[in-house]
Each structure stands twice: as structure tokens, then as C-alpha cells.
Amino acid sequence: MQYVEHPRYGRGVVIESRYNGLELRIKFEDGITRWIRREFVRFLSKAPVLEKCKRAKLTMPAGKFRAVGIIEALRMGVVPLGQIEEFTVGREDELGRIKDWLDNPQAGTLQIVGEYGTGKTHLLNCIYLLALREGWAVSYVGLDHMENPPYRPRSVYGSIINSFRFGEKGEGDFRKFLQKIAMNKNTHEILEHPLLGKILRKIREDEVDEDDWEWIEGKLSKRYQKYNHSTSASIYCNILSGIGWAAKKLGLKGFLVLFDEAENVDLVQYRNQFKKGWNFLSGLVLLSNNTKSLLWEDILYTSSGYIGEETRLQYYGFRTDIRFAWRIPSNLKLVFAFTPGDLVNEPPFDSVERVELEHLRAHHFNELLEKIKTIYKEAYDFEVANEELRKFEFPPHTRSFIKACVEAMDILRLGGTR
After folding, report:
1. Kind and range of the H or E element at 370?
2. DSSP string of 244-295?
3. For 329-343, what is each residue's pLDDT tens digit?
4. Is residue 235 a contact partner of residue 227, using CB atoms and an 8 Å limit?
5. What angle do CA 279, 32, 87 make, to 5 degrees?
6. To the nearest 10°, the Cα dihedral for 7, 13, 15, 21?
7. What is the Cα–Cα distance from 238 to 297, expressed in whole angstroms?
8. How would residue 1 be classed by pLDDT, with cut points 50, 70 and 90?
9. How far apart are CA 322 and CA 365, in angstroms?
10. What is the pTM of this model?
11. Taking Cα atoms as reference points, which of 381, 386, 391 lies closest to residue 413?
């Protein structure tokens, strides 16, 4: 069994490979299985994934090798994380607004709204890198209606923790973060947290075991199975509130969570699942907006469960003593990427700042094309003439455009026909 680690998705196990080992199918600790290019993961043991023929020693210059790797990623429409900013064009105004929002301590949640193909995921990656450099702890979560739906708070929380990173290059993970918190003299107040406190005291006393780690990281744990209900949103919001507070005490600016494909909250089989998912997302938004009633509101028992009198949020019935917030301010910021629709206008999202993305203009696509041409020339010593490229039709969506550019250059280099 081969274990690997991805800079965003964390640790996982290799299931199979394809394209002669170029891509690996990996089941990550958040429960989601993804195809990932081999060079984007770090192997945690020396055992090979598959038996492969021995290859000659690499003699390709480092610059050329790097360029080939970038082109191989672009061929699939994926911009490598290290080149995200280099391939960001036409988003100066949007990034300026996002930087202002990130620096505003009063702003908790931001929406990025755009049609498919406008570059929402790319922009989230830009924010991810920007926030790490500026001293935030950051998590990146893809919401999926099958494997990571919002109506399963433990699963979403586990994805948040699994992708948790801090440090300018994202070198710190959640375990390192908790170890720093446990040993920091300025964070003794967090030991009073009803859930984090127990784990932190165990870390201090060197008594923490793997079951403790699995629970606080949102994995299925034999010892803490009762927090795996769809109504446990208040439990995990409370923990995230503690994490945000601790991040600030540790000298970070706070805790930023990026949610991609947030519209998946509506892709459910039963209406009750939507209500549970929306309850979780609403709780997160109110927490990031430092809604003080999360600390003290009366909780009423109704036919729908335990409901907050002020916020109308549903609380976890087995632990109504644990509120959606542990401390205010929470030092938590959220970014949700949505496609246009009714959801973006529903409370509490109707009152948060919104950045709307339009499709890139023709001159932006030309700028991208020139960047790809430069890297392609470095990779294959082949320069593509613009008049030759004009014979091809390129789609007006960013990801498809990038794939089509590389394919067109391959055809011209290999002597094929349009």
C-alpha cells in the first residue's frame, strides 16, 4: 500500500495508476477519490506504486523539464498551483476587491458568482496562495453532492481540516497547528473549549492517541461516533470558532475557508437534506459575520428539533450546551463559489459581499495564448506561428481554451492537420 500527500487534499492511498504512471487514482482522508498527476504528490514511503521499467538517468535541463510538466498539466486544462498567478489574466479588479475584503476585519463572508468556465476555481486558487503569503491559515474544500455534501457536517468539517495549511508556503498542517497551540503560553484560554480543550490537554501531556486525532480531524472515530449526525452543525461550527480564535493568538491573521461548487447544497434527493445542509452553511456565515446571538440565544424545542430563537438555526440535540460560536470575534472568513441562481439571494447569503465573474474578453485569451506559446517553445523547442493558430477555432471558456491551445500546438508540432 502506497501513501502519498498532496499540498491541498492532504494524505491518501494510491488505488491505481494510468498513462504509464503519469496519473494516480488516490483515495484521500476526506473520503473523496481523485485522479492526480504524479508530480503533484509527495510519496510518504519508499515502496513504488507499480513495478516499472528502469529508465535512463534524466538528462533534460531543469528549465525544460519544468516547462514540459506545465504543458502536460495544461493539456488537461489544469493550471499547476505554482503557476496559478502567472496564468491569471483579466482579473485585476476582482483581485483588488478580494484583497480589500480580506483586509477588512468586519467582513466575514464573500461570494464569487459566475457561470461555468468563468474561472471561479482558478480565482479560489489565487486567493489560497495570497492568503497563505499574507499570514492566514487556509483550507480549500470542494463541496460534492455525493461524497462531500453540506448536509453531512462531519464530512465537510473533515475536508476543512484535511486541507488546513498555514505558513507562507503552506508547510504547516492541522496537527502541527494544534501542537503549537497546545504549547503556546498565550493560548491557555483555548483549554476551556468544550471539545478542543480535551485534545489540547492530551497533547500537552503527551497522552493523545490516534483515535483522538481522528475525531478532531473529522474522521470516523469509534470513541466519538455521536457527532456524526446531520444535525451536528453546531458542534463543528463551535470547533471552527475555536480554531479561528487560536489562529489569531498564534500570530496568524485568522482562518480562511474556501468553498468551491457551493451550489451543490441544492443537489439533494430529499428536501430535508437541503435544510440540513443550508443550516450548516448558514451557521458558518453567521459565525464568520460575528453574530453575537450565536453565543447566548435561547434554544427552543420544536417539532423540527432544537431551534435558536434569534437565528432559527438547528442545534445538535444531544449537546445543546455547545453553541454555534465559542468566542466572538471568530476570526473566521469564508469564500463561497456559486453558479448564478436563487441560492445566492437567499438569507444569509443575500447580505454578504459578492464578486461577479464575467467570461474573459478576446484580448485576455490572446494573452493566455502568448503565455502558453512561450512555455511550449521552452518545452519542445517549437515555436508556433500565429497565422497557423488562426486556422483553429478555440472555445470561449477558460479551461477548454487552454486544452485546445495545447492540442493545436501538438498538431502543428507533430505535422498533423487541422
Report:
1. helix 362-380
2. HHHHHHTT---EEEEEE-GGGGG--SSHHHHHHHHHHHHHHHHHHTT-THHH
3. 999 999 999 999 889
4. yes
5. 95
6. 50
7. 14
8. confident
9. 51
10. 0.83
11. 381
